[in-house]
């Protein structure tokens, strides 16, 4: 099922970088930036995470909670957070259940090769838990501006 603007955002239960449970419903009443990215410590994903880090105070002021999702393990997430001083939660979706809910695990092509992977996508979820915006063409070096509408 494809997720669309105006629909309720699918709730999920997963674990974060510390192995602690995290669900979308625990952020009810807050605006959530739920961003899916392919892999910790790769150039594009690091640029995106650091851009969100550098503008985290503006995102907080605008009322957003930032949650990153990839298929990396909690340990890899912890290393990525420590290395880049990331101030937000990263969700370890090793079984791809959250990816499947948001339809971000898809067939991709690279240099003539087909494989399954994460489609870099950001979902902006409003205080009522509905999808307010979907950003498909993510600018990794300028992502917070896309979210804040600068």
UniProtKB/TrEMBL annotation:
Listed EC numbers: 1.11.1.24
Domain Thioredoxin: 3-150
An annotated Gene Ontology molecular function: thioredoxin peroxidase activity
Keyword Disulfide bond: yes
Record-annotated active site: 45 (cysteine sulfenic acid (-soh) intermediate)
InterPro entries in alphabetical order: AhpC/TSA (IPR000866), Peroxiredoxin_AhpC-typ (IPR024706), Peroxiredoxin_BCP/PrxQ (IPR050924), Thioredoxin-like_sf (IPR036249), Thioredoxin_domain (IPR013766)
Xref: CDD domains: PRX_BCP
Keyword field: Antioxidant, Disulfide bond, Oxidoreductase, Peroxidase, Redox-active center
Catalysed reaction, written as an equation: a hydroperoxide + [thioredoxin]-dithiol = an alcohol + [thioredoxin]-disulfide + H2O
GO cellular component: cytoplasm
Key word tRNA processing present: no
PROSITE patterns registered for this protein in UniProt: THIOREDOXIN_2
Origin: domain of life: Bacteria
Subunit structure: Monomer.
Family the UniProt entry places it in: Belongs to the peroxiredoxin family. BCP/PrxQ subfamily.
Stated role: Thiol-specific peroxidase that catalyzes the reduction of hydrogen peroxide and organic hydroperoxides to water and alcohols, respectively. Plays a role in cell protection against oxidative stress by detoxifying peroxides and as sensor of hydrogen peroxide-mediated signaling events.
Protein known as: thioredoxin-dependent peroxiredoxin
The species this protein was found in: Motiliproteus coralliicola
